[in-house]
Amino acid sequence: xxxxxxxxxxxxxxxxxxxxxxxxxxxxxxxxxxxxxxxxxxxxxxxxxxxxxxxxxxxxxxxxxxxxxxxxxxxxxxxxxxxxxxxxxxxxxxxxxxxxxxxxxxxxxxxxxxxxxxxxxxxxxxxxxxxxxxxxxxxxxxxxxxxxxxxxxxxxxxxxxxxxxxxxxxxxxxxxxxxxxxxxxxxxxxxxxxxxxxxxxxxxxxxxxxxxxxxxxxxxxxxxxxxxxxxxxxxxxxxxxxxxxxxxxxxxxxxxxxxxxxxxxxxxxxxxxxxxxxxxxxxxxxxxxxxxxxxxxxxxxxxxxxxxxxxxxxxxxxxxxxxxxxxxxxxxxxxxxxxxxxxxxxxxxxxxxxxxxxxxxxxxxxxxxxxxxxxxxxxxxxxxxxxxxxxxxxxxxxxxxxxxxxxxxxxxxxxxxxxxxxxxxxxxxxxxxxxxxxxxxxxxxxxxxxxxxxxxxxxxxxxxxxxxxxxxxxxxxxxxxxxxxxxxxxxxxxxxxxxxxxxxxxxxxxxxxxxxxxxxxxxxxxxxxxxxxxxxxxxxxxxxxxxxxxxxxxxxxxxxxxxxxxxxxxxxxxxxxxxxxxxxxxxxxxxxxxxxxxxxxxxxxxxxxxxxxxxxxxxxxxxxxxxxxxx
Length: 631
Description:
Layout: H1 3-33, H2 48-78, H3 85-100, E1 111-113, E2 122-124, H4 127-136, H5 143-152, E3 160-166, E4 170-175, H6 177-190, E5 202-206, H7 221-236, E6 240-245, H8 253-264, H9 278-291, H10 293-307, H11 311-335, E7 340-341, H12 348-360, E8 365-367, E9 370-373, E10 382-385, H13 393-406, E11 412-418, H14 422-434, E12 444-450, H15 471-488, H16 502-518, H17 523-532, H18 540-550, H19 552-562, H20 566-585, E13 589-591, E14 598-601, H21 603-623
Parallel strand pairs: 5-6, 5-11, 6-7, 11-12
Antiparallel strand pairs: 1-2, 2-4, 3-4, 8-9, 9-10, 13-14
Helix pairs in contact: 1-2, 3-5, 4-5, 6-18, 6-21, 8-9, 8-10, 8-11, 9-10, 12-13, 13-14, 16-20, 16-21, 18-20, 18-21, 20-21
């Protein structure tokens, strides 16, 4: 029973009670008129029956006001969120399973999209695992019998058209056509909204993280793009996102760079040195560091002075950092990336506090002169303090972890790096738990890993090697090649408008947007059609497309669980191909074959095109795919 029905029920009860109160009151008034000296009981004007009705009426009206307020909130929220059919069906089956088998605590209720249309739209696969659980409790019950009991407890729902049991106990659920039509209309009226994912969270996303004094290379592309897309996704569902760029702007390499800067440009503090090509500058300094013992000695001395914050060394350090920042900014602007820099240098003071805390708690162990910390279940410890007393990347990451929890007040931490760093981060998180900073019941923490980018030697790119492909060069070459291929009308894979490519998706969106223009439909007319035209999904291809559109919030919820953005890419491709099937089989605009004039426009199908385009556009925004008009 939905909220609106409950309100009507209570209102009817209240009205009936009010009628009875008025009837009794009228009878008492009549009695007063004709009492003629007869003495009536003193409580006649407030009989127990009348008072009972009044109290009941007050309670009913109070309940009605509460329900009306809840209904108003529900209606308000309905415009802010998109319902996921899968989540709603999951709730229906969860209720049925709980009622059917109350003896099973936290029963499994897997509800998945069906692989084949003949098996409905969604499939509940609870029967077999529940049969096993019942068997363990001494109750023999076949999966098919379990399925029958579940179906018997299913409440009535406007979402589902029918539910059928197939095979050994699979429960196939088919969506109601009218429900799908209504939801597509709501999408057009309210816009593409996120699913309701619960309370707003403060999420810190750590991504990109290039190293100062080295230009970004192709290996940084995935972290940067994936991190930005995850951030956009989180913002779309209503979370507060803090994008952080944990750049490598501190460490022993700066001693080498500053020593080289002093030797080559002794007046660097007065005249800006020509070190725009940091790639070459770094490579030259590295060669000297590896081959010249005196230079290496000087470099170590510079590190100490930098760590002691001597003014001239801080000036040199800032100069090198600024050159890198300018290059990073060009890349971020080109890729439409928003991020806040907070490098290793930011955590210098906090590192001291972290080491003191871990020592005081007895978590650090001596290992060949180093101070290390183990995490439960991890065989390789973190090196918190080096044998020479210096700190490491591990120390910096621990300090960053603590700062994000206690200073940033994060509810959720996401680290976007290649999968090769998985063990490192699991150890960082484990040590954070051991230190008492990470409380899993209060903080969600994820490492969103991706495949390692390899060089021609099949080894991972090394940022410090100085021989990697510059990301700026890669992007520029990609643009030039794309332009040339377009001019030649000869497309390579990335420009093919067939198959699962961004070009194909953009082509599909262009086709959708062109249909209304072809029909000479004014935007205002289209908006009126959204309010007045009923969407029909009678043709099989219309029906398939309508259901595909409604899967968008389901896909978003799935990605929020595993942070795998390829799921969204696959969905958008599936949506585009489903639209193509619809477009090829269902006319939206009928033209005169001889004159080419528009004879008939199917507004329902035109609105279906608009709904598809709206979902594609939202997906493009999350993935950072820019359409021509937005570039």
